[in-house]
Amino acid sequence: MQANRLPVLILVLSILYIFIIPQEPLAFKLFFKLIPMALIIIYAFYQTPKQKTIVHWLILIGLFFCSIGDGTIQWFVVGLSAFLIGHLFYLTGFVSQWKFSKWRVASIIPIGIYAWIMGNELVQAIANSEDTYLVIPVIIYIAAIASMAWFAIMTGNIFASIGSILFVISDSILAWNMFVSPVNYEHVFVMVTYYAAQFFIAHSLRSLGGKHTRIVW
Q1: Which residues contact 141 (CB under 8 A, 6 or more apart)?
Q2: How far is 62 from 58, CA to CA, in rounded Å?
Q3: How large is the angle between the packed helices 158-175 and 108-127, nearest 10 degrees?
Q4: What are phi and psi of 216, to 5 degrees?
Q5: What is the per-residue pLDDT across 12-71, written as a single tens digit (0 to 9) for each?
Q6: Contact criterion met (CB below 8 Å) for 88 and 71
Q7: pTM of the predicted model as reported, rounded to 2 decimal places
Q8: Distance from the Cα of residue 175 to its chain's centroid
Q9: What DSSP assignment string belongs to 73-135?
Q10: Does residue 23 sit in helix, strand or coil?
């Protein structure tokens, strides 16, 4: 399979899953849900050199664990745990690519404010529900994904930055719909931003951790 054809195939199969595949049976739905992620992981491999660095492997492993989370999110704690592990791998990879800039450092302010506001809304909603045991896991997850987004921005890599921000948006819509109030077209918004996030993170491997030209901002 040629690497330059993969983005088109990923796009087509993502649209197929989001807009056409029926909700039932569940196994059939999950199968088509995971195909775009499998292709994104293959695409990520194409973006790395034969001699992969630790950064490449950390991001690739993160993609793998996120795909597990994607397939198990209906069992919320299992899926959340897999996504958390994925974010920790992403975070570790991005930390090693830190490129100092006072403007990028300053991005911790809006990220922190957003994480605080979103976290406060989610914690209050969960505390008032029957799922109070989820308060601590959700707080940990919010801290992890917010940190991942900030460290992605600190790499100076535009693709990693866009991917991480889209991931935050996707998870925010999912969590808001699940715990706070219904979001119209939640499934569409969550999956579009999710697939786009993972694709951009995969594409960032072209210029992370190697001798490739680094695309920075």
Answers
A1: 80, 83, 84, 87, 171
A2: 6
A3: 20
A4: -125, 165
A5: 999 999 999 998 898 999 999 999 999 999 999 999 988 899 999 999 999 999 999 999
A6: no
A7: 0.92
A8: 14
A9: TTSHHHHHHHHHHHHHHHHHHHHTT----HHHHHTHHHHHHHHHHHHHHHHHHHHTSS-GGGH
A10: coil
